[in-house]
Amino acid sequence: MTSRTWDTFQRIISALIALPVYFFLIFFDQYYTLGILLISLAVTLSCLYEFYQIASSKGGGTPFVIPGLAAGFVINVIIYMFSFGRVYGFERYLAIFDVRIVLAVFVFLGVIISALHIVIRPLSDGIFSLATTMFGIIFIVLPFSHIILMKALPDGIYYIFILHLVIMFNDTFAYFGGVFFGTHKTGFPVSPNKSWEGYFSGMLFSTVVIIVANEAFQIFFDRHLFSLPEAILLGMLLSLLGNIGDLVESAIKRDADIKDSGRIIPGHGGMWDVFDALIFVFPVFYYYLKLKGV
Q: Do residues 62 and 45 share a domain?
């Protein structure tokens, strides 16, 4: 068995094991819908830890890993309480669970890591250490944790499912479109081998799958989520945002001269390698739905 065949085999086995667990926890509504909190915690904290390890490998300083992970944990819990508190009768605790407490977490984190840096770190690396600690939370934890907010929406599981379908089809057909039809390279320094044919193939099939899924939900579940023009525009927009998330992670890894963000998932690499395309799409899709009146 060649190394490429073995890698493909590992990817398939990992997906067959991990995907059912992932979607089960997303759709699981027992025990105060804690499944969605567990998913968000597992993904955001794993990705954040991988980002901190990548940043540390640069040699220009070291992020404050434990305070950063602790802040990420607290932010997830705050968002969960805000999203599901009223659903489960936690009204008396909700007064403090608004945007101000999320800002308070950042303020206190800034104070804590600044104090730690003054006491235990060389001041020459202060900008790098402080900036990477805060940036990881802003770039990874806050965006992806919108999956909790989306689950709390009416028909939230349908929106989450359709979003994952779009990104999965985008990644899959961008790859095959590039392999079979890619002749015009994008020229992006971060990913010079990617082709425009690959990107447009991904966008095409992202648009097709959101249209098909939208019609299927209406036929089988009596859920009318989007109009046809709306589905077309969303397919294109989400494909674009997914590609941006992937390219940003690629840029960070290339800067650190590494191939994968980690090794936690055989055949796929790190958690961030798997979820990079979802980082930006969750918040944009969520706020679109809120503006729409969902």
A: yes
